[in-house]
Amino acid sequence: EDLIIPSGITLTIGPDVALVMSPRVHLRVMGTLDIQGAAGQEVTISGKGAETWGGISFEEPSTTSTLTHLTVRNASRGKEPTLYPAAIAGLNATVELDFIDIAECRGPLFFRGGSTILRDSRIHIPLTGDGINVKGGDAETYRTTFLGNNSPDVDAIDYDGVVNGIIKDCRLYNFLGFNSDGIDTGEQCVNTLIEGNHIYYT
C-alpha cells in the first residue's frame, strides 16, 4: 500500500535512514514531510532490488516540507501521473530541497504552482524530459549540477509562467539532443534572474 502522510501530520526522517519501496508503491504527502539527512548520512529512498517504484507526490499540502541530504533511486512518477509526472512532484506545494541526489529515475522534478527552492543538488536526466520543470508559482534554483543526455527535448531547467524566478550558479552538462536547452524560461515567464551558470557540451 502507499505510504500516505495525511493533512495535519508530519513525518520526520532522520539521518542515515533507508526506505526501500516496493514496485508501484508511492509516498504521498498531504501533510508535512521533513527529511533530515546529513552529509555522509544521507536518507535514501530506492526500489526493492532496484526495481522501479512510484514517486514522492506533494498533493496540495498547506505546510512547508523540507528535504535535506536525500538520495532517490529507481523512482518513476506519482499515483496520478498526469498531475505528478516525476520522481518528486508537487501541486500547489511549498517544498525546499537541499543536497538532493536523483539518478536512475524516469524523470526527476516537476512542480505546478506553490513555491519550490532547489539548492546544492545533483540531478541526472536519463530520458527525454526536464531536470526540474516548474509551471507557475515561485521557483528558485541555486548551485545545482544537472547531467543530461543525447535524447531530444531534454532541458535542465524549465520554468513556465514563473514570475521573479531565480536560476543561479548552476552547472549543466551534456544537453546535446535536438531541441534540448540548458535553461528554458519561455511561456509567460517574467523577470527571471539568470546569473553565474555554466553550460558544458560534454
Write the layout of secondary structure elements.
Layout: E1 3-5, E2 10-13, E3 18-21, E4 27-29, E5 32-36, E6 43-47, E7 56-59, E8 64-73, E9 88-91, E10 94-103, E11 109-112, E12 115-119, E13 122-124, E14 129-135, E15 138-142, E16 145-147, E17 154-160, E18 166-168, E19 171-173, E20 181-184, E21 193-195, E22 198-200
Parallel strand pairs: 1-4, 2-5, 3-6, 4-7, 5-8, 6-8, 7-9, 8-10, 9-11, 10-12, 10-13, 11-14, 12-15, 13-16, 14-17, 15-18, 16-19, 17-20, 18-21, 19-22
Mean pLDDT: 96
- Over all CA atoms, what is the radius of gyration? 16 Å
Residue runs with pLDDT of under 50 for 5 or more positions: none
Work out the helicity level. under 10%
Word description of this protein:
- With 202 residues, this protein is mostly beta strands.
- It has strands at residues 3-5, 10-13, 18-21, 27-29, 32-36, 43-47, 56-59, 64-73, 88-91, 94-103, 109-112, 115-119, 122-124, 129-135, 138-142, 145-147, 154-160, 166-168, 171-173, 181-184, 193-195, 198-200.
- The strands form two sheets. Strands 2, 3, 5, 6, 8, 10, 12, 13, 15, 16, 18, 19, 21 and 22 form a 14-stranded parallel sheet that branches. An eight-stranded parallel sheet has the order 1-4-7-9-11-14-17-20, with no helix packed on it.
Summary tags:
mainly beta, 14-stranded parallel beta sheet, 8-stranded parallel beta sheet, 22 strands, 202 residues, single chain, globular
